[in-house]
Amino acid sequence: MSDDDLLAHLRRLGMASQEAEVYLAMLHTGRTTAADLAEHLGRQPGEAERSLGRLVDLGLAAAAGGPGRPEATAVEPTIALDRLSHARSAELLQARTAAVNAYRHYRRSVRPQATDDLVEVVTGPRIVERIQHIEGTVESQVLRFDSPPYHVRVGANPTEVHNLERGVEYRVVYSKSAVENGLYYAVNIRPCIAAGEHARVLPTVPVKLTVFDRRLAIVSMSFVEAEVNDSLLVVRPSSLLSALAGLFETSWRSAFPMHLSDRVPAALRPMHVRILELLGTGITDDTIAQLLGISRRTLSRNLEQLNQRAGTVTRFQLALYAARQGWI
Questions:
Q1: Which CATH topology does 122-257 take?
Q2: What is the pTM of this model?
């Protein structure tokens, strides 16, 4: 790491520029005096002495030498930097709280009847950038209705996978048309489910919607006939946002799970597991075979094996058996 990079990192932790430069100089010079540091950095002795005293107070330097020649040396910084980091976090939280409270006061006193800032319309090329920014900063939960057409070309969703890895909860209700898209199912839906997404499916979803941390929602407004998305609504905290979150919860309760629980017998073949995941989506056997990359005959043979294991005859009975066994 270069000296410039280290100085930038130290300043981000809350150290003043002069203190950071003195600490970096001590890492190069070893045990030294304020006078030597002043000469090395081209500073006044008094400035270097004050910066050195501050570093001692922070725990980043220790006094050494005798009364006639007071010296100091840099010390292992972990504890001191942890203190700086915690102090910086507390300052940022205090600043965030102050800004939020100031805006709430503004809404109550200056514009008590204002509603124009509760919904924002985003159009054109700004849509994709806005979605990526919002999803990249989510903290704990994402609720989503997923249905084509999409704002971006069908592909993987590395942002969601990364968020899942850092503990963000995703609950997604897919429309049947989304699951029937073979490419989208293979490169987006299945990898996200494998990464920890909780997925369910309905024949159709009421609206294209994503709710972030229950503090912000995006609603896609589309020209379905042209199969392109034209605009996006960004909905901020309001009764409308609460209604959208409530709509999702109602739909979630009635949707069919797309992934199996940990109660599925370990002896069940991987192909059988994938078939069971798709049985309740409402898609046809031909589509299931296409999504799994197998022939219709191979699917029929696997369904027969599953029915024999469950003692059932139809796919409906098989899905019901899986539900009663707690597999889904």
A1: Endonuclease; Chain A (3.30.870)
A2: 0.58
